[in-house]
């Protein structure tokens, strides 16, 4: 299926958010995610089903000032 991750088109076989993040070698413990503009709690990563055309934003904390 075709989805967008951080604005980039991506073809994936992942059906859930946690699987997509693992597939992309993203450490689930250090990121926050929004799907189609809605923040997703980490407890929902394994139950959120992905659909073609979804927009996933993966955000990681930054330090500095």
Outline of the structure:
The chain contains 1 helix and 5 strands, in the order ββαβββ. With 65 residues, it is mainly β.
Describe the structure.
The structure is a single chain. This protein is mainly β and 65 residues long. Helices cover 11% and strands 31% of the residues. It has 1 helix and 5 strands; from the N terminus they run ββαβββ. The longest helix has 7 residues. The termini are far apart. The mean pLDDT is 93.
What features would you highlight for this structure?
65 residues; mainly beta; globular; five-stranded mixed beta sheet
Into which percentage range does the β-strand content fall?
25-35%
Q: Overall mean pLDDT score?
A: 93
Task: Give, in spatial order, the strands making up the sheet with the most strands.
Answer: 2-1-5-3-4
Could you give the order of the helices and strands?
EEHEEE
How many helices? The count is: 1
Q: Evaluate the radius of gyration.
A: 11 Å
Q: Give the tally of β-strands.
A: 5
Main pleated sheet: 5 strands, mixed
Q: What is the CA-CA span between the terminal residues?
A: 39 Å
Helix content: 10-25%
Assign the structural class, choosing from mainly alpha, mainly beta, alpha/beta, alpha+beta, or little secondary structure. mainly beta
Q: Which regions contain 5 or more consecutive residues with pLDDT less than 50?
A: none
How would you describe the shape?
Answer: globular
